UniProtKB/TrEMBL annotation:
GO terms for biological process: cell division. The keyword Magnesium does not apply. The chain crosses the membrane at residues 77-99. Residues 185-285 form the Cell division protein FtsQ/DivIB C-terminal domain. This is Cell division protein FtsQ. It comes from the Bacteria. InterPro entries: Cell_div_FtsQ/DivIB_C, FtsQ_DivIB, POTRA_FtsQ_type. Residues 110-173 form the POTRA domain. It comes from Serinibacter salmoneus. GO terms for cellular component: plasma membrane. Residues 38-54 have a biased composition (Low complexity). Keywords: Cell cycle, Cell division, Cell membrane, Membrane, Transmembrane, Transmembrane helix. Residues 1-59 are annotated as: Disordered. The lineage of its organism: Bacteria, Bacillati, Actinomycetota, Actinomycetes, Micrococcales. PANTHER family: CELL DIVISION PROTEIN DIVIB, CELL DIVISION PROTEIN FTSQ.
Length: 301
């Protein structure tokens, strides 16, 4: 059998003979609590320096780590802001250089022209592009730049490409004359679209062109010329070789003059194949005038 523990010093212990619980006096209980629980609020004389430091050290270390993290976070944000600001400045400088400054602008001596023909030369094309000299290349719109080039009568079509850092290259498709309209002292040279390419003295007119008799001062002169040229292009070689000239007062009243002086009233440009076949048949009869404007009811006289 275990022996009961010896009572603490300063405590009054009673051991009832009847086996009831141990009873402590109020004085002993207070002394026991005072000894077991350290006081943190007692005066300076009752506090232990080593105990205070033990409680304060973890708090000071945590505060220091939090401060270090805040400083590191502020440094990261400062670096990011600096990098973002630098990038924005560089992008702005690049945009300004490319889009607005004269560093990459068009120069008059950097305009290259390719494809000039007999009726248009490089100087004309370069002069047409010259109004854009000083404009940054990135802001040049091809359609706008080529508009005055395409307005040149000797230019059928044109394309443009940039030649960095200061130039452009313009390639043109020249318009070639396919017909002429003879006046009193001059000759109008016409392209296949009815545009007057050039007006030259009669002595300088090139040969091998279809002779047209059209009033080029009329409002629909170009349309009339195109109608006549389409009729001539639709003729078979056997008939085309016999046509000396063609005249028209409108696209709906075209007349051909053959090499023997006979006239062909062609009418408009519709049904060219049928009209040509009817004319070849009528030519076997012989006449001074052939009317195939209504090919299903032709007449001769």
């Amino acid at each position: 059998m275990k022996r009961p523990n010896a009572p603490r010093a300063g405590r009054s212990t009673q051991h009832p003979s009847d086996g009831s619980d141990l009873v402590l006096s109020e004085t002993d209980l207070d002394a026991t609590l005072a000894a077991d629980v350290p006081s943190s609020t007692s005066g300076a004389s009752g506090s232990s320096p080593s105990a205070a430091g033990a409680y304060q050290a973890p708090v000071s270390s945590l505060h220091r780590r939090l401060s270090e993290r805040q400083r590191a976070s502020r440094r990261r944000w400062a670096v990011r802001a600096s990098v973002g600001l630098t990038a924005a400045v560089l992008v702005g400088l690049l945009v300004w250089t490319v889009m607005f400054s004269s560093l990459l602008a068009l120069r008059a001596d950097a305009v290259a022209v390719r494809g000039e023909g007999a009726w248009v030369d490089a100087t004309e094309v370069a002069d047409a592009v010259g109004e854009w000299v000083g404009t940054p290349l990135a802001r040049l719109d091809s359609a706008t730049v080529l508009e005055p080039v395409l307005a040149l009568p000797g230019v059928q079509d044109a394309t443009m490409s940039r030649a960095w850092p200061h130039g452009v290259s313009v390639t043109i498709e020249p318009r070639e004359p396919v017909a002429r309209v003879t006046g009193a002292d001059t000759v109008d040279l016409l392209g296949d679209d009815g545009v007057v390419i050039a007006t030259v003295p009669a002595a300088q007119s090139p040969g091998g062109l279809a002779e047209l008799a059209i009033d080029m001062s009329a409002e629909d002169a170009a349309q009339t010329a195109v109608g006549v040229l389409e009729v001539l292009a639709a003729l078979p070689d056997s008939l085309g070789a016999r046509v000396e000239s063609a005249s028209a007062t409108s696209p709906r009243s075209i007349t051909l003059v053959l090499d023997d002086g006979a006239q062909v009233l062609w009418g408009d440009g519709s049904e060219p194949e049928l009209k040509a076949a009817v004319l070849e048949t009528l030519l076997q009869v012989g006449a001074q005038e052939y009317d195939v404007s209504a090919p299903l009811a032709p007449t001769t006289s």
